[in-house]
Design a protein that fits this description.
The protein is an alpha/beta fold. Helix 10 packs across helix 14. The protein is globular and about 75 Å long. The mean pLDDT is 97. Bound molecules: alpha-D-galactopyranose (GLA) and zinc ion. Zinc ion binds next to helix 6.
């Protein structure tokens, strides 16, 4: 993550907002944070209004005092740029910085993440502020990274954006004829005569009359999603370039949000020095869900360790129910992040604020103001433990043999699509396949469609509806050379502009999979078909393909309806490898049994065989191989030691075959 000699252990700390407090409190904070073994603070996330009280006045006096305070007290700093919420005077004087919602409503001053990414005023003021910050604090040797803005996101449909969208489209397509072709504009008399005819695809135009997601012209809306992500990325890069000029050696990041729809993080990652992200699983999330997000975030930089920038110590105010993390849970989730590639454990926030919406958000220092709380004690214990681990796991990599293809264009395109089923969800399909592997302790990497596949023994591409230019060629070569490819229903239908690939589904994947899908039957939620796979009956629903084999062998067939006897699952031998196809959606047991069988057939091994509630991952580097064992259950669990290993938290040694016990919610890191 932050590859710097300043980082010699897992960073432990997070968002600290002393500007919300009278200065008398700061000294108490310093004492308490040291007591909790905190070593890094994220500063200046939302201070623009204080730093620039009016257009011509900048005032860094408070930030100077804060920077000095934390330096004197030995804390490292992750320094934010404060551009995630603009000051009130700016909104009053330059209303073009205000965002416009999808329904055409221009926002007033308020909330945060509220600036139009294409506003010239916003960009100009952001750049000026960042320039001043970088020049002022460049020599603070305790800054470990720059944190640009905060949780970039959202969309804007204002006139700035409309103008910029036209330019973006022009750059992409060159001529209006190409645009008409790419967006299939002879449909509904949409022919554009000039780039000026292009408007934002919002509720006033193409998204009228639908459920807020689906649209009349997927090609336009898809390009708008790409444009919006690019526009916000330009804001990130604008700040980054300025920071680079002043501090070429300080890495730059921004905190991402895991499975976040609006931004194409794979594209973003290329411009970020390292990935950092904020993990806020719902109170009732299954343990595999944060694991998936960590793996997705790790995959953005081809497996490089990332920073866990935020999580809550106890509750998140914005969840439906602010259910406390039970004793041990905060520690378990912290190590889960490390187990999946994090080199930091950080929190929002150090001290609980007294007003506005985050006053009931968890913090290390609670409203009582002392160290005498359960949460503070748990934090302190974790802080001590992380000190004993030193740099052992820093920089260590995961060596997964299986990857899942994830693609933001596919996420957008499948959601925008009018048909085939409202019950179909790209992310739910990704989760289903991931969960199946997680349950069996098989490590997974997430890759994008342009990443290298050659190092994987198996590539799973759930619902790769849009087979983008070059992806089929890559898969074809991969399978020919001996790879194992798994694809599913609703794959290969369209090319990059969401135009259907003619000549039969699944389009360009047809020869690789050795099938032709003649029809796609979308069953309402209360209807089901079935298939028998290896003597067990499984449900089939939501989508059922009517498949003809063209070289592939059927592995299971539908039981009911007019396609009874037609294949539901197929396997095609292709070159030295093979390609599997799942022509429907089923239940968790099916995905788990199915992928386990394929793994077994192709010699893909789990990290360890053990109980399903126990998660195991491995990270390795030249310092050693570390097996992370996490007991997500509320009971004691046992695993069998896979070899001679040492528990690096307490030095206990185990020989191969020894039983290792983990209390409820406990974690072990075993070095071999
Ligand atoms: C996000 C933000 C923080 C804070 C937390 C609360 O992650 O980055 O500023 O609002 O949520 O959960
Ligand atoms: Zn805008």
């Amino acid at each position: 993550m932050i590859e710097s000699e300043k980082v010699t252990k897992i960073l432990f700390g997070g968002d600290y907002n002393p500007e919300q407090w009278p200065e008398e409190v700061w000294a108490q904070d310093m004492r308490l944070l040291k007591e909790a073994h905190i070593d890094v603070v994220t500063l200046n996330v939302f201070s623009w209004a204080l730093l620039q009280p009016s257009e011509d006045v900048y005032d860094f006096s408070m930030l100077d005092r804060i920077m000095e305070l934390v330096r004197k007290n030995g804390f490292k700093v992750c320094l934010a740029t404060s551009t995630a919420a603009h000051p009130a005077w700016m909104a009053r004087k330059y209303p073009d910085i205000l965002r416009t919602e999808k329904n055409g409503m221009r926002r007033k001053f308020g909330s945060r993440h509220n600036s139009c990414p294409n506003s010239e005023s916003y960009r100009r003021f952001a750049a000026l502020l960042v320039e001043k910050l970088a020049a002022r604090y460049r020599d603070h040797e305790n800054i470990v990274c720059w944190h640009i803005s905060n949780e970039f996101g959202g969309e804007c449909y204002c006139e700035n954006c409309e103008r910029k969208f036209r330019e973006w489209v022009k750059r992409k397509y060159g001529t209006i004829e190409n645009v008409n072709k790419a967006w299939n504009m002879n449909f509904w008399s949409h022919t554009l005569y000039d780039f000026e005819d292009i408007v934002t695809p919002d509720l006033r135009s193409e998204e009228f009359d639908w459920d807020g997601l689906r649209t009349n012209f997927q090609g336009i809306s898809l390009d708008y999603a790409r444009f919006n992500s690019d526009s916000i990325l330009e804001c990130f890069n604008l700040e980054k370039e300025i920071l680079r000029k002043y501090t070429p050696d300080i890495p730059v990041t921004t905190n991402l949000m895991g499975l976040y729809r609006c931004l194409d993080y794979q594209k973003w990652a290329r411009d970020m020095d390292f990935i950092s992200w904020d993990n806020y699983p719902a109170y009732n999330a299954m343990p595999f869900e944060p694991a998936l997000s960590h793996d997705l975030m790790r995959g953005l930089k081809q497996g490089k360790p990332f920073a866990l920038m935020e999580q809550t110590a106890s509750v998140s105010n914005w969840h439906l129910y602010c259910k406390q993390k039970r004793p041990g849970m905060m520690r378990l989730l912290s190590y889960q992040a490390v187990a999946h590639g994090a080199d930091s454990v950080m929190f929002f926030q150090m001290r609980r604020s007294i007003g506005a919406c985050e006053k009931y958000h968890g913090a290390i220092i609670d409203h009582v103001g002392t160290s005498d709380t359960r949460v503070f004690r748990e934090i302190t214990e974790l802080g001590e433990e992380l000190e004993t681990l030193r740099d052992a796991t820093l920089g260590a990599r995961t060596n997964a043999k299986v990857c899942i293809v994830f693609d933001w264009d596919n996420w957008w395109a499948t959601e925008l699509s009018a048909g085939p089923s409202r019950s179909l969800s790209y992310v739910e399909q990704i989760k289903a396949y991931y969960h199946a592997l997680w349950r069996r302790h098989i490590s997974v990497d997430f890759v994008g469609v342009t990443d290298d596949l050659a190092k994987y023994s198996m590539v799973i591409a759930p619902m790769i509806y849009m087979c983008k230019n070059g992806f089929d060629t890559k898969v074809r070569e991969y399978v020919k050379a001996g790879g194992v490819f798994v694809a599913t229903t609703f794959s290969g239908y369209v090319e990059d502009h969401d135009l259907v690939v003619l000549g039969g589904y699944p389009g360009k994947l047809r020869d690789i999979l050795g099938i032709w899908v003649e029809e796609l039957d979308a069953l309402p939620p209360d209807e089901q078909n079935h298939f028998i796979y290896k003597d067990r009956e499984y449900p089939a629903g939501i989508l059922c393909d009517v498949i003809h084999t063209e070289g592939a062998k059927a592995q299971a067939s539908f039981e009911d309806d007019y396609y009874a006897g037609y294949p539901a699952l197929t396997k095609n031998t292709y070159g030295k490898g093979c390609a599997y196809y799942v022509g429907t959606l089923s239940n968790d047991d099916f995905y788990s049994d199915y992928l386990w069988n394929i793994c077994t057939e192709h010699g893909i091994k789990p990290v360890l065989e053990c109980d399903e509630d126990v998660e195991v991952t491995e990270r390795s580097s030249e310092k050693g191989r570390y097996l992370f064992v996490l007991n997500h259950s509320n009971e004691e669990k046992q695993i069998t030691s896979p070899g001679s290993v040492t528990d690096i938290m307490n030095g206990t040694e185990y020989a191969a075959g020894d039983t290792i016990s983990l209390k409820e919610k406990d974690v072990k890191i075993l070095r071999s």
